[in-house]
Structure prediction request, 412 residues.
Amino acid sequence: MSANILRTTVAEIVEKTPVFDIHTHLYDPAFGDMLLWGIDELLTYHYLVSEAFRWMDMPYEKFWAAPKQQQAEWIWNELFIKHSPVSEACRGVVTVLNKLGIAADRRDLPALRRWFAQWKPADYINRCCELANVRKIGMTNSPFDDAERPVWEKGFKRDPRFVAALRIDPLLMDWPNAAKRLHGWGYTVSADFSGQTFAEVRRFLGDWTKKIDAHYCMVSLPPEFAFPAKTDAAQIIEHAIMPHGREHNQAFALMIGVRRAVNPQLQLAGDSIGTADVTAVERLCAAFPGNKFLCTMLARENQHALCIAARKFRTLHVFGCWWFMNVPSIIEEITRMRLELIGLSCTPQHSDCRVLDQLTYKWAHSRPIIAKVLADKYEDLAVGGWHPTREEIQRDVQHLLGGAFEEFLARN
Ligand code: RAT
Ligand code: ZN
Prediction:
C-alpha cells in the first residue's frame, strides 16, 4: 500500500467501524424527556453556557430564571451571531447541523427549531446513531438521582443500544448523606461504618448492578483523591467496591481531576480542573490485583503518568479524552502518546454527550484524529518494512473503537 492509499484506507475504516461510546450522559429512550435532543438543548449545553458567559454581561440569576428557549437565544446571539463559533463546543453545533443536512449558515434560529420539531424521538435516535455510526451507548446511571431511580424501579423494556454504568459519586464523596439515603432504602448502614455497613453497601451495589445490568461501576473524583487514605472514599472502595467488583467481575471506572462548583453561579458549567496524583491509581491496582480498573483523567499533566501506570498494570484500562481534554489539539497529542506507550490496548475516546445530537459531532471530530494518528504509526512501521493488511487495520480500529474495552470487561 502506498502512503496515500494507507492514509485513505485507515480514514475510511475508522469512519465505517461502528463505535461503542463507553461513557455518555444519554438515556435509554424509555427515560422520556431525560434523553435530551434538539437545537435548544444543543445550545444550552453547559460547555457553551460557560463560554457565553465570557461575553454576556448578565446576572447569573437572570439567565437561570429564564426559559430554556430564551437561554438558548442568548447563547446563540453571543457565540454564533456576534462572534464566529470557533471553539470546539461551538463548532460542534455547526457540525451537528451540517451532518443533519441543515444549512447552518442561514443563522435562523426559529427555522432551526421548526426543523427539529418535525422529528419523532424514536426516528431521531435512529438517525443520530446512524450518522454517528455508534453501535452502543454507555449511559451514566445513578441510583441517587431522584428522577432516574423510579424509572429503574418500575422497570421497562431496554433498548439494547443503551448499556448501563452504575454511577456512585455520592457514596464516595458524601458518605454521611449517602448513608442516610441507603438507610431509607432498607440497607442497614451506619455513618461510622460500624456493624454490617460494608456488607450492606455491597448488597446495595449488587442489587443495582443486577437491576440495571451495569457494565461497570463508576465515580468522578477530585484531584485530591488519595489511596490508601483514612477517607470515607478510600474505606468504601477497599471494603465494599473492591469485593463487589471481584464478586461480579465488574470493573471500577475512576474519572479523576474534577473540582466541582468552582463557580457555583454557573451551575453545571461551574466545575473546574486540578492535577491529580496518579500514584493513587497505581496503589489501587497494586493493592487489588483481582480487580479491574478503567481510568480517565482531566488534567493534561496527568496523561503521561497514567499511561505509564497502564504499562505496569494490565488490570488498568485507560480511556477517553475527558471534557476539557476533548479538543482536537489535545486529543491528537494524547492519542499519539497512548499509542506510542501502550499500543492498541486503550480506548482513545468516549463522547461524554449530554445531548443525543452531539453524538454526530463528537465522533465526526474525533474519528479523523484517531485515523491520522494511527496512519502515522503505520507509516512509521512501513519505514521498517512492516505493512499492515486491510484486515489487520480493521482489527486494530475495532479495538480502538470499543473492542479492546469489551475484551477488557469480559476478562476474568
Ligand atoms: O463532561 C461533562 O459533561 C461533565 O459535566 C461531567 O458530567 C463529567 O463528564 C462526569 O461524568 O462527571
Ligand atoms: Zn461524564
